[in-house]
Specification:
The chain has 97 residues and is mostly beta strands. The protein contains no helices and 8 strands. Helices cover 0% and strands 48% of the residues.
Length: 97
Amino acid sequence: MGLFLYADKLFKEMCTDVLENGFGMTYPHNNTVVNSDSVFLSWTKADLADRYTYRIATDAAMENIVMRGSTSANVAKVSGLTPGVTYYWSVEAENIS
């Protein structure tokens, strides 16, 4: 059984519709099944952002965070996920300069 990945409910519409400033989650979409213990998360770049923080949780409220990371790119490879578990993810754009 693969992984089930959902965008965080706060960002649910951003999976398919990019926000006005161009920032939005692009993959994986809601209900995506990943047949691996790893997945690439991707999002469109945000204006003026130089760091992105992503979070993966086992609940839609994003309270049980099981993984997090930061990157300057608009893609991140996440490994060590458990097949058969439903995960939710979110990403936040930041300007740290």
